Amino acid sequence: MSQVMLIVRDPDLRGELEKSIHSTGLSVSAPADIDEALSHIDEDPPTLLLAESPVDDTSIIKLQESVRRKIPSTPMLVYLPSCDSRLALKNMAAGAYDCLHPPFNTNDFLMAARRAVRRVSAHFFGVEPSSPPAAWWRLPITYVCLGLVLFFGLFGIGFFDLFSPPFQIYELTASHPVSVSGNKDDVWIVDQKSRSLARMRVEGDYLMIVKVYQVPDFQPVSVVQGKTYLYTASSDGYLRQHNNDKKLSVTASVRAPGPSPSGLSWDGDNLWSCDAGTGKIYQHAKDMTVIDSFSSPAAIPAGLAWKGKALWVADSRNQLLWKLWRQKGKWKKEGPFMLDVFNHNPDLKLSGFTMWKNNAWIVSEGSRALIRHRVTKKK
């Protein structure tokens, strides 16, 4: 089995890439065109595909279908002609694991390839699937663990939380993620620079793109799925209501109540927003007009999220969370809750936040990081 298959039309570029990859000690097959590549896939399935983009639509669709049908566990990297974020998003949405661009950098390729093959636990330049442990002790250990889980569960203690790390970082294709929002099985990522909204799915340790939507008419800063419509906030100070169609067509728009909308959330009946300029949280009617507002405990609010009867808000200045709830008509607060990831990664800066599937989810603008964080500690 060849380790890397190159699918590059330009013979000079193909030779250059082949030489660079050979220098790393990897074996390479370099068919001249798509048809030859497809026949090689049958004869000698690769561990990794590196395909040139753009190629004509018919060929790339044919290639993608064949790869998914014949070698579904083989990840594909795409070599772009330029640093075009929209082209990268288009390729990622079509099934590419990652994108590279000229000039070809061997280290960048190796890093992307290692990430890709870890996804499928392939044997590849030092990335090995873990061997299963000996089985003789599994049965008694299983009974002990079940007993402990039951014990901790009866007393309301998160047994597995004692041993699992407080956060996990996923790598995004978005270069400037400014907002994140969870909805049922999917999580939405807002990339302000490319003016795109990406609907993604988290499957274990992997982050899969479901669909990428372009919104060329405005720069989005936040998104949330409502009962019927999708809602966005933009840097020009507007709130928009969208149909859930292929183009996310706008059905209504209003001026945001503040100059710098920085987060949206949905409580099941109403839209909520926060504003970094005013420091306030707003409740909206069905026509998106404001029906209530109050000051946020966050110095600079950067994301809202309803979870049950509690409203969570993130503070981008201090990188903390606050929990709010109504009691006898008044807002009560608890916090702040600290986020350990920022102590371990000082270069990360909170730009967006949501609560989804019992965890806090955070994005950091300019870092390509989506962070799943357990919220258990209070500062």
Topology:
Elements: E1 4-7, H1 11-22, E2 28-29, H2 34-43, E3 48-52, H3 57-70, E4 76-79, H4 85-94, E5 98-100, H5 106-120, H6 138-154, E6 167-171, E7 177-183, E8 186-191, E9 196-203, E10 206-214, E11 220-225, E12 230-234, E13 238-242, E14 250-255, E15 261-266, E16 271-275, E17 280-284, E18 290-295, E19 301-307, E20 310-315, E21 320-327, E22 330-338, H7 341-344, E23 350-356, E24 359-364, E25 369-373
Parallel strand pairs: 1-2, 1-3, 3-4, 4-5
Antiparallel strand pairs: 6-25, 7-8, 8-9, 9-10, 11-12, 12-13, 13-14, 15-16, 16-17, 17-18, 19-20, 20-21, 21-22, 23-24, 24-25
Helix pairs in contact: 2-3
Describe the structure using short key phrases:
alpha+beta; five-stranded parallel β-sheet; Methylamine Dehydrogenase, Chain H; four-stranded antiparallel β-sheet; Rossmann fold; 379 residues
Describe this entry's structure for a reader.
The protein has about 375 residues and is α+β, with helices and mostly antiparallel strands. It folds into three domains: about 5-120, Response regulator (Rossmann fold), CATH 3.40.50; about 130-165, no CATH class; about 165-375, YVTN repeat-like/Quinoprotein amine dehydrogenase (Methylamine Dehydrogenase, Chain H, 7 Propeller), CATH 2.130.10.10. The protein has seven helices and 25 strands. It has helices at about 10-20, 35-45, 55-70, 85-95, 105-120, 140-155, 340-345; strands spanning about 5, 30, 50, 75-80, 100, 165-170, 175-185, 185-190, 195-205, 205-215, 220-225, 230-235, 240, 250-255, 260-265, 270-275, 280-285, 290-295, 300-305, 310-315, 320-325, 330-340, 350-355, 360-365, 370-375. The strands form six sheets. It has a five-stranded parallel beta sheet, with helices on both faces. Strands 6-25-24-23 form a four-stranded antiparallel beta sheet, with no helix packed on it.
